[in-house]
Write a structure and sequence with these properties.
Strands 1, 2, 3, 4 and 6 form a five-stranded antiparallel sheet that branches. The chain has a three-stranded mixed sheet with strand order 5-9-8, with helices on one face. A two-stranded antiparallel sheet has the order 7-10. It is an alpha+beta fold. The protein contains 19 helices and twelve strands. Among the domains are: 2-89, no CATH class; 239-451, no CATH class.
């Protein structure tokens, strides 16, 4: 309880700081000309974002995750604000070397030197609930050792304790939504991230499927060295997302195609989603090869869920049938059967999410498109928002959709997304649309994943 109130107090203090900053800058703009007002507004944006980073960088847990998401999810944010929030990926204060050593040894139940040939106590990465160290095993393998912060469970629990309040807030915007289901789904998936044994099983699912893939790489797991709060995997070196942004357009296109194929190929081929698409979860290599990290937030779908996704695609894209599409989403629980919404309204609303798949040509996923999709999803002024509901299995898929579009937009990724999608959709299984598609088709056949 104390942790919860302390974190609420920090957020209240942050709000007060931003309010004070706002009134200070507002008073300075009263007698300023237009150019000076614009300059002052930019200063306010940067100072406010910096205050958020300073607070959330100390808080870790869910609050930091939200701050990180804000830094990349909506391209409608001012560039200077996104840049400042983006520093949250690297601003987490690490554990002290002594605490890191003590924590790792407690999980291993042995001195470090008995388990590893060497381990660097200075972390190579620090995230919202844990940090990563470089180590060498006794057998000489380079590994990444992810250790959970000792207070991670308490901070996550404190942030998620106000789920009833969050449910009420969402309910005000979307009155027909069963917000308890939505919040429960978010809460359960986030709490699963605290159990590295679950993450290990999730990662093993993806590793076993993609092992030997020509351009999708999942790090190997060392289960004998892993526990609920310690995860040891193959150490992978490469380029960060920010470095990849400086690459030539062709390399960025290939990287974007790989991410797209991984996300939707995983959904339709192994019925699983790696649901945390933020820039720190990718390591980039040239020629489209990408290593995927962090499988703590993974959603496994039931066949009935996939049938709904497939039916929506068929009736809105493949053979458009507005009346049939309406029946599909009503049976799925997205719209109540007795709603007064016109079928044309429903089609217009959902067509936004498939817009980039309607073209038979190459399409560049722009920042304007990503921002428009984000805002369209949460447009509470839309008449449809009064009737729409979100079944629990749509919660994570929508998060990765929005995150994926935002990241591909930042890469400026260009491809024939429709043709690539038709390859991936198991109910179509179209021919290879690109050279990477040819490589993947060969691998699928060689590993007997398709006939």
């Amino acid at each position: 309880m104390t942790t919860r109130f302390m974190r609420l107090a920090k957020m209240s203090t942050l709000t007060a700081k931003i309010a004070a900053t706002y009134f200070t800058f507002k008073s300075r703009t009263i007698f300023s000309n237009a150019s000076r007002k614009e300059e002052l507004n930019r200063e306010f944006e940067i100072k406010s974002a910096t205050q958020v980073v300073e607070t959330l960088g100390q808080m870790r847990g869910v609050m930091m995750k939200l701050g990180q998401m804000a830094g990349y999810l909506d391209d409608g944010l001012p560039e200077n604000v996104k840049t400042t929030l983006g520093t949250l990926y690297n601003s987490v204060p690490p554990m002290s070397r002594q605490l890191a050593k003590k924590t790792i040894e407690a999980e291993l139940r042995a001195p470090l030197e008995d388990v590893f040939a060497s381990l660097d106590l200075d972390p190579i990465a620090a995230a919202s609930i844990g940090q990563v160290h470089r180590a060498i095993t006794k057998s000489g393998n380079a590994v990444a050792v992810k250790i959970q912060y000792p207070d991670a469970a308490n901070t996550m629990a404190a942030d998620l304790a106000n789920s009833d309040s969050l449910s009420r807030i969402i309910g005000l915007a979307f009155p027909n939504m069963d917000t308890r289901k939505v919040v429960t789904e978010i809460r359960e998936r986030m709490l699963e991230e605290l159990d590295y044994e679950i993450e290990s099983r999730n990662q093993l699912l993806f590793f076993n499927y993609y092992n030997g893939h020509p351009f999708i790489h999942i790090p190997r797991i060392y289960p004998e060295l892993s526990t609920k709060r310690l995860l040891v995997t193959e150490l992978v070196s490469g380029s960060s997302f920010e470095e990849a942004l400086t690459w030539p357009a062709q390399e960025r296109n290939l990287a974007g195609e790989t991410i797209y194929r991984f996300v939707f190929g995983s959904l339709y081929r192994i019925a699983a989603f790696n649901g945390d698409p933020h820039p720190g979860n990718y390591i980039f290599h040239k020629a489209g090869r990408v290593t995927f990290l962090d499988f703590g937030l993974t959603k496994v779908f039931q066949p009935a869920n996939l049938f709904v996704f497939e039916s929506m695609i068929k009736t809105i894209l493949i053979e458009p049938n507005p009346d049939q599409f309406r029946k599909v989403i009503e049976s799925a629980g997205l719209i109540p059967p007795d709603s007064p919404l016109a079928t044309s309204e429903i089609m217009e609303f959902f067509q936004h999410f498939y817009a980039f798949l309607t073209s038979e040509d190459e399409v560049e996923l722009s920042s304007e498109f990503a921002s428009a999709i984000f805002r369209h999803t949460f447009d509470v002024s839309s008449r449809i928002s009064k009737f729409i509901d979100v079944p629990e299995y749509f919660v994570i898929i929508q998060r990765i959709n929005l995150g994926l579009y935002a990241l591909l937009a930042r890469l400026g990724a260009k491809a024939n997304w429709r043709k690539i999608a038709e390859e991936i959709w198991t109910f179509i299984q179209g021919p290879p649309a690109t050279p990477m598609g040819e490589l993947e088709q060969k691998w699928l056949r060689d590993t007997h994943k398709i006939s």
